Amino acid sequence: MFRSLGEVIEKLKAYPPMRLCVAQAADTLVLEAVRDAAQQYLAVPILVGEKNKILQEAEKIGFSLEDVEILDCPGPEAPMVAVKLVYEKKADVFMKGMVETSAFLKAVLAPDFGLRKGMLLSHLAAMEVPSLERVIFITDGGINIAPTLEEKAAILQNAVDAVRALGYEEPKAAVLAVVENISTKMQATLDAAILSKMAQRGQITGAVVDGPLALDNALVPQAAVHKKIQSPVAGKADIILAPEILTANTLAKSISFLAGGHMAGVVVGARVPVVLSSRADSAYSKLASIALACLIKRGEEEC
User: What is the pLDDT of residue 62?
Assistant: First the structure.
């Protein structure tokens, strides 16, 4: 169990650096994170995009690119050029730079050389929360807008697989709803109950799953005790599966911008983890996202 994103970064230092391919790297915050990852021997960067702009942005932060590989191409072509490197196994992890998310994901899903492996792609946010003594994982606040029950099962399995790759033997997953009681008037509670049963029957594997659980009794032991909830997950959840994108996105951003927390974000379910952080995220959050993706990749290789 990680207590902070700093622990994720420290754990990665025990491994050789991975090859990090950055699509349209001409962005100061992205380059700050890439510089820090390179200086801490977490990653070997490969920068893709408009070379002159990349050099200009790097100069602003004192980042020498003398020994860094740069593939010069027009900005709009950068995602496709970068994803081909990963597809051809010339890079290990793929990162979004200064490019629209839609164009970035279009490259990830390209039919000829994209990174799809038949599973649903989903976003996983690792959150460092000041009021908790552990990192929690929230999904899906970035890809799937209003997932069906079947899509929720795939999103949850993606999250479980990624968290297990990080070293969690059997993570605890809470399926979020407003209340912990099942109500036919609230679809989220019905889906949560079904997902919990699916996990019991082996249709979702690798985690202890329970729901519906409200946010407080999913994360805070005292809240679960107060409501007399008997559950191996209540108060101890590692993974929070939100009912739709708005809930997950708002929860993650509230932790980051209102509660003094930090977020690392990746896309999971592809051939390799994909670093997909918000353009408003700090350089530290982007560095943590790089470390998270690289550590997931390491864990997948060791499985």
Answer: 93
How many CA atoms within 13 Å lie on the side-chain side of 222? 1
pLDDT in tens, 98-119: 888 888 888 888 888 778 886 7
Q: How far apart (Å, rounded) are the C-alpha atoms in residues 284 and 29?
A: 9
Give pLDDT, residue 255. 95
Which tokens go with 106?
Answer: 């279009």
The total number of residues shown for the chain amounts to 303
pTM, 2 dp = 0.94
Quote the CA–CA distance of 196 and 164 in Å, as a whole number: 18
pLDDT at res. 200: 96
**What pLDDT is recorded for position 110?**
85
What is the model's pLDDT at position 107? Answer: 87
- Tokens representing residue 118 in the block: 């038949």
> Average of pLDDT values for 54-75?
94
Domain annotation for the chain: domains and CATH numbers: 1-116+270-302 (3.40.50.10950), 119-265 (3.40.718.10)
Q: Which amino acid, residue 278?
A: S
Token couple for 184: 């036919």
List the beta bridge partners of residue 241: 139, 175
- Contacts (Cβ under 8 Å, ≥6 apart) of 273: 93, 94, 162, 266, 267, 292, 293, 294, 296, 297
Give 241-278 as a DSSP string: E-SSHHHHHHHHHHHHHTS--EEEEEEESBSS-EE---
Q: What share of the chain is helix, strand, coil (3-state, %, to 5)?
A: 40, 20, 40
Unique residue bearing structure tokens 């000829």: 112
Angle 28-39/51-60 helices, nearest 10 degrees?
70
CA 114 vs CA 169, 206, 271: distances in Å = 30, 27, 9
Residue 167 and residue 292 in contact, taking contact as beta carbons nearer than 8 Å:
no
